[in-house]
Design brief:
The structure is a homodimer.
Chain A lengths: L1 E4 L6 E5 L18 E6 L4 H11 L2 E5 L8 H13 L7 E6 L1 H13 L5 E6 L2 H7 L4 E6 L2 E8 L4 E4 L9 H18 L1 H6 L9 H18 L14 H10 L7 H9 L8 H11 L9 H10 L3 E2 L2 E6 L7 E5 L1 H7 L1
Parallel strand pairs in A: 2-9, 3-4, 3-5, 5-6, 6-9
Antiparallel strand pairs in A: 1-2, 7-8, 10-11, 11-12
Helix pairs in contact in A: 2-3, 4-5, 4-7, 5-7, 5-9, 5-10, 8-9, 8-11, 11-12
Chain lengths: 331, 331
């Protein structure tokens, strides 16, 4: 199936198709243009190889993990593009999770001030969320996604078959964002996570999540209004993520923990039960001082106040101006 | 006077005003927002200090010259913004020449995916040309401006008084771009450079050049068509610049040298005479092999052909598809 993102001249299609990787030339036509496939060591190497072989592209592989999402790797991708004499007729193709897509996308957004970018997300998290919306970025110091660009891909190709090779923890990690989208927009989607057999509905989960994300991004491409709702659970979640050593908690696990304090009394027990059902964490040995310090540096803070998102009823949300001090008390 | 750039929601004003620096708060209103003034060691320090004092801003100074226009300095500016806890309510202000504006602009374009950017150009080159148009960038290896973004400033403030402290060679360097704009668009502007007293007309030169640049940028903000005319003299010019040690030739000197072979028979003698009059070079001990190699890497090349601009009559231009091989023969 194809979900179309309507963003004026930056519109593009999201294709969801089992086995798409093995016939990628049906979805990506570069004409005489060259392709650099950017992937990381955590992604089965045959995925990037399949794409590279079918599009006569080159492969750039960086070490997996958030720690690689930095200026050095960004620069290395740009150097590779330069070494291969890439021009504005050529393309960058990400094959990997969110880190890979964010970084390859930022390189594509800025190399020659922008060349074509295609995204082939291979994790649940990136398939349901991060691969669409056009937010590209790298980290700096301990602050995630602080340097980047809004840059839309030419196409996103989602092959659910690739999820088969993912570890269970990775899958659950990705589902946290879907739970978030269900909580704030789609009670039916949220309801799936309250069922024991939720994993049988993975394609429905991907599709419903993409449609929520599409709705929000189309309303607010540059994140000046509504789109901030997608930060639900992220203000505290990012701070938790920054307070622990890289990799100790996955992004989705931090979002799960970050959503709980932002729910109203009637929603919280349902969320906690759903998180338990999915196998996401519901509590953690918090380092409050580190979390507070990270909250104060969160890029979403404007001056000394922070725009946070609350969910007081499943399927709805409210924005709230608050402060790091008040937020830390909620945990 | 004020020249307005009409670019839809990215529109902005260019203010040309003697003494503007000393009353900068009349032109830049940040509300409660913070300001980082980015300057370099070649700019009289009092310029940045004046702006910082009047806007309660901080100053970031990097070492002058093209060699600083790299990932390291770009990263250092981002780190400074992070250290000062800059948010989307704050602003970056460049006080310097093209290198400074390009790099500060790229940092502003990408820090938090874009915060406000103001440009206060202090060289002829940046006042007549590079400060407007929204092209920000850094260099990589020997290739200039290969990584960057299209990002419009909130305002450009030009204070012609600051030119008084510039060395003569710097002034002439900047005028090459004005000569280019006169050649391709404005015979009257070009005619000024054929007069012995051309320097008495500096404000007229700035204004006329800005208006040509404005016309071209408004027609083609993202450089997909007409804007390539501004590359007149630059395809060969950039290659010459890449072929010599950093700083041996100034950018404008390379553009001057790069324009000569791209003129028709009737125009070339007039251009050479004007360049002589202004004191710009008309010949050089070329290293053809290095120039050829740089031409092949020029970011404007599409596959194996290059879009070059020719001037066969003063005030006009034509686009021409050519190859590095043909270009090198013209020198």
């Amino acid at each position: 199936m194809t979900v179309s993102m309507n963003l004026g001249k930056d519109s593009y299609d999201i294709v969801i198709e089992r086995g798409a990787l093995g016939k990628i030339e049906d979805y990506i036509d570069l004409g005489k243009g060259k392709a650099l496939i950017v992937t990381d060591s955590g992604v089965p190497a045959e995925y990037a190889k399949t794409v590279a072989d079918r599009l006569s592209g080159s492969v750039f592989t960086f070490e997996q993990g958030e720690k690689s999402k930095n200026f050095d790797t960004y620069k290395a991708i740009c150097e590779k593009l330069l070494e291969l004499s890439f021009t504005r007729s050529d393309a960058v193709i990400a094959v990997g999770g969110g880190v890979c897509g964010d970084m390859a996308g930022f390189a594509a957004a800025t190399y020659m001030r922008g060349i074509a970018f295609y995204n082939i997300p291979t994790t649940v998290l990136s398939q349901v969320d991060s691969s669409i919306g056009g937010k590209t970025a790298i980290d700096l110091g301990k602050i995630k996604n602080i340097v980047g660009a809004f840059y839309q891909p030419k196409k996103v190709i989602i092959d659910p078959d690739v999820l088969a090779t993912l570890p269970e923890r990775q899958i659950k990690n990705g589902l946290a964002e879907s739970i978030k989208m269900g909580l704030c927009f789609d009670p039916e989607l949220f309801g799936l996570f309250e069922k024991a057999d939720y994993l049988d509905h993975i394609e429905k989960i991907i599709e419903a999540s993409l449609k929520v994300k599409r709705y929000v991004v189309e309303q607010d491409e540059k994140e000046i209004g509504l789109r901030k709702v997608l930060n639900f659970g992220h203000t505290i979640g990012h701070a938790i993520e920054a307070s622990v050593p890289f990799g100790e908690l996955y992004h989705g696990e931090c979002v799960a923990l970050g959503m709980i304090p932002m729910c109203g009394e009637s929603v919280r027990p349902r969320l906690v039960a759903a998180l338990k059902n999915v196998g996401l964490p519901i509590s953690f040995d918090y380092d409050r001082e580190k979390i507070y310090s990270a909250l104060c540096h969160d890029k979403k803070s404007v001056g000394k106040t922070v725009t946070a998102v609350r969910c007081n009823e499943v399927g709805s949300f409210v924005f709230e101006q608050t402060t790091p001090k008040k937020l830390i008390k909620l945990i």
